[in-house]
Amino acid sequence: MLARLLALVIKEFLAILRDGKSRMVLIGPPLIQLVVFGYAASFDLNHVPFAVYDQDQTALSRDLVADFAGAPSFQQVAVLHSPERIRQLIDSRAVEMVLDIDPRYGRDLLLGQPAPVQIIVDGRNSNTALLILGYASDIITSASESWAATHGGMAPPARLEPRALYNPTLDSHWFIIPGIVALLTQVVTLLVVGLSVAREREAGTFDQTLVTPLRPLDIVLGKSLPGLIIGLVEGSVIILATHFWFGVPLLGSLVLLYMGLFLFIAAVTGIGLMISSLAATQQQALLGAFLFMVPSIILSGFATPIANMPPLVQDLTLINPMRYALVVIRESFLEHPSLATLLPQFGAMTTLALISLIAAGWLFRKRVV
Questions:
Q1: Cα separations in angstroms, 24 against 9, 226, 231, 303, 306
Q2: Local confidence band at 27 (pLDDT 50, 70, 90 cut-offs)
């Protein structure tokens, strides 16, 4: 059995590596997506375009404007001389924020009174608006504290000193890029395994495999192992890039990280074999793979917290292996989890892997018979 299985695994690797399209799927898209996601995907805001409506026109108000213009989160694009253009600029999305400085700003600051400043933001994207307000509030608070320290004024009665665990710089890339390890590993594994049987059916070589001494179980295992190996290699490349290229710290155990990665790839391989056994053509297999991938990414917690989803949708995420893989990978990078901490995730992925592989074997035997 081992000899037959090894021969089939070698045949699968040769079929994948000799096919130019398959090689492109393995090498090109994952690297491109890693670069695009790594540099472009971020929850942070940079260079937010804003306009200034300075009604005070004093050195103090100009200092405040300079604080905003010098911050990496903001980029000044317009100076207003009347309030009529505020709505026009925000409606046209030319600016995301308007800094409206009251004509009493400098006077009240000199008198030690609260100096009025109004921040007007585009609320059509509520998450972006909240981030802009948070950044603006930090700059204004810092300017007030600096003024009080320089001129002997009263400091605020209470001062907030935030401290973030596991991500002290609050860099959203530390959260997003480890998730890309699971995302791209799933994409590559699902495509390679999902297209394997369909490709042979189209080429007419699958019937030749059926008349060999290989049993259906041998064929299922022979189709699974290349996907597992390719998924682990792809995952390893992305893990190395995440740590050494993008600078995300890897604080946890590599053994636990690879245990989770292996179980995740096993579950995805089973799903890919199920799709491949049902599809008659590569086009059908490709469509089935994308029909599974899009919901699995949305329902994994990759971009939006699962706790914010409706209860019924939260229940659906329990059958998504990527949900558990994200927890293992992110905790392995940013924390130092123990085996006991990750056991629930390992148990869930093991169950899903067994169910999907057994279902794939059953479907495959039904199609063969």
A1: 20, 16, 15, 27, 33
A2: low
